[in-house]
Amino acid sequence: MAIKISIKQISPFIVLSIVSIAAVFIPSFANFDDKGIYSAADIAWILVATALVFLMTPGLAFFYGGMVHRKNVISTMIKSVVAAGVVSVLWVTVGFSLSFGTSIGGFIGDPSTFLFFKGVNSGAPWSLAPTIPFTLFAIFQLMFAIITPGLVVGAVAERIRFTSYILFICLFSLAVYAPLAHWTWHPDGFLFKMGVFDFAGGTVVHISAGMAALAGALVLKRRQVHLDHQEIPPANIPYVLIGTGLLWFGWFGFNAGSAMGANALAVSAFATTNIAAASAGLSWMFFDVLRGKKPSVLGFCIGAVVGLVAITPGAGLVAIPQSIFIGFIAAIISNLAVYWKSKTNLDDTLDVFPCHGVGGIVGMLLTGLLASKTVNSAGADGWFYGDMAFFFTQLKGVSIVVAYSFSVSYVIFKFINFLQPIRVSSQEEEEGLDASQHDEKYFQGTLLINNRELLVDREVETF
Questions:
Q1: Cβ pair 192, 184 in contact under 8 A
Q2: I need a labelling partner for 346 at 20 to 30 A (CA). Which of 70, 138, 229, 406 fits?
Q3: At what angle do helices 73-90 and 40-65 cross, to 10 degrees?
Q4: pLDDT digits (tens, 9 = 90+) for 359-380
Q5: Which of 274, 266, 270 is closest to 376 using CA atoms?
Q6: Cα–Cα distance between 311 and 323 in angstroms, integer?
Q7: % helix / strand / coil in the chain, to the nearest 5?
Q8: For residue 28, is it within any domain?
Q9: How many domains does the chain contain in total?
């Protein structure tokens, strides 16, 4: 029987083919010439930090995959990991140019500046990272761009079509992530010039993902199990624990690497990252006990991730003792936001908005409160140290990013739904996305591919 393939099915391959063929005709450039301006120690550290940030993507896959229903484990995990493929190609072609190319009015980079990484290899170092090659800076920033759309997966899990999600990654990366990265991290970006400080991605990564998650949950509407008020047990809590460990480990590169060198600021950011995560994990778990629950693995893991989110914008701006408070208070606020969300009709499957969106907002505002020039002379003093204006600058920046991220993400989801149904059918949802979208199934530690059982977690007697 002939298999019918629609234009929608073949269009991703056609686009990739065009990009691949076009890349063949891009002139080759020699690698950078050291000329004594680069630091070997800084290059080594940022290479390690880049790898650490990449490790967060499979970490996120384990974190999310362990919390969904077992019939959606594979589909949830691949949506996090596939961003590494889509965004990497997109970043080289035009994404890096939009984020860090010649500024157009402080809002977006000129897409032709580094088209297909033109001139990146042999270009002068980035003005804010003068001791490492420009190529290394570009690849380090790529890792941030990869994980951001992956964070949104948790809100739309168990009901979004895989092809629709691929299209979302492309549109979100170009229309939301790239502009925010330019506004915040480019010296000519308007938020940068306004005096908004986001050390490692509180706005660019976490608030943008959190608001996109809220928009996606609203457009996709509620799952049937949510409508029926069914309690869905996590598929694999050890996966969540593994994912948390990988995220925590990778976050050292995320925050300490943003110091752009092996220096004192990297050491401080490394320490604040760990302390905030530890404080937040305990805070979430103990706050649950205070509310009559038992201390849980999930509670500590979710709390630790919230702490990592909250410290991200201020990791290189606040002192180590203050990071305890940031983790502590952020976990409580996000915990309450999760509780509030549970009383509404909002179906954010894995609480991405309360954890990443709210966590990022809290982190940005606490940076405005507790930042100190004693830690980072290039930073600012927060309200607690006498500069009330800086706090309100942070508040203004957060408001702009929240409004932009939500509105554009909402339009993106609506646009995708106009092109094709963004949500799987009720029958496919009931069957599970592992089977309906990928023809793969996860059964209590056993992966079933083409009716052949493959060992994952435990022994099986037959193959």
A1: yes
A2: 70
A3: 150
A4: 999 999 999 999 999 999 999 9
A5: 266
A6: 7
A7: 65, 5, 30
A8: no
A9: 1
Q: Which domain holds residue 426?
A: 41-455
Can you give the pTM of this predicted structure?
A: 0.93
d(CA 214, CA 341): 11
Q: Residues with Cβ < 8 Å from 92, sequence gap 6 or more?
A: 116, 117
Q: Are 75 and 150 in contact (CB under 8 A)?
A: no
Q: Dump strand ranges (E) for 5-118.
A: 103-104, 108-109
* Cα gap 330→207, rounded to integer Å: 14
| Residue 8 confidence (pLDDT) above 80 | no
Structure tokens at 355: 């954890």
Give 110-129 pLDDT, tens digit per residue.
999 999 998 898 778 999 99
The token pair at 36 is 């004594």
- Nearest residue to 358 (alpha-carbon basis) of 385, 379, 331, 319: 331
* Cα dihedral 205, 213, 147, 28 in deg (nearest 10): -80
Q: Does 114 map to a domain?
A: yes
| Alpha carbons 301 and 376: distance in angstroms, whole number | 30
326 C-beta neighbours (distance < 10 Å), count: 27
CATH code, 369: 1.10.3430.10
Q: Is 146 in contact with 173 (CB distance < 8 Å)?
A: no
Closest among 87, 115, 142, 90 to 26, alpha carbons compared: 115
- Bridge partners (DSSP) of residue 108 are 104
Q: Is the dihedral of CA 173, 179, 180, 184 positive or negative?
A: positive
In one letter, which amino acid is 278? A
Strand partners, 442: 447
In a domain, 4, yes or no: no
- Asked if residue 256 belongs to a domain, the reply is yes
Residues 356/309, Cβ–Cβ less than 8 Å = yes
- Burial (CB count <10 Å: 0-12, 13-18, 19+), residue 271: middle
